[in-house]
Write a structure and sequence with these properties.
By secondary structure, the chain is mainly α. Helix content is about 65%, strand content about 5%. The chain has a two-stranded parallel sheet. Helix 5 packs antiparallel against helix 6.
Length: about 150
């Protein structure tokens, strides 16, 4: 569904909920102008950014440039994860004052959700590289105990 359609779909009951990665993003988009409940702290597994680079360009890059990009992405990931945690805690406080009910899903509910998304993710892993990336991410989540 195009994100622009979500507001109408929420208002008309076509969908029951929407999420744009975290509650701070959701506030910025205006979702809580319509929604009166949310899931907090949430269910997303990777609050960081990604770098996409063509493999031939990456392979041709000098090692010191690769190192600069790797360190920069690590710093960006740490910074964004930290900012995400702080902003979401501040946003949760503001939403509670606004009267939005914050729900925490049980382990059982999270397991049902994560099983559904795992099946959906597999539909998009159509290349060997995508399958490898998905398996790596699933192994990470399984190691954390976040997914079976």
């Amino acid at each position: 569904m195009d994100f622009n359609e979500i507001f109408t779909a929420l208002e008309t009951g076509i969908i029951d909920g929407a999420d744009a990665a975290n509650i701070t993003n959701n506030v910025g988009l205006g979702l809580y102008d319509i929604a009166t409940e949310t899931n907090y702290p949430g269910f997303h597994s990777m609050p960081a950014d990604h770098l996409a680079c063509r493999k031939d360009i990456w392979d041709a890059m000098p090692d010191h440039h690769k190192a600069i990009l790797k360190v920069g992405m690590q710093a960006l990931g740490l910074k964004n994860s930290t900012i995400n945690e702080v902003k979401n805690a501040q946003t949760a406080k503001m939403l509670r004052k606004k009267g939005v009910k914050l729900n925490t899903w049980s382990d059982e509910d999270l397991a049902i959700y994560r099983q559904a998304v795992q099946e959906s993710w597999a539909e998009f892993a159509t290349t060997p590289e995508a399958k490898s990336l998905l398996e790596s991410h699933l192994a990470f989540l399984r190691d954390l105990g976040a997914m079976k």
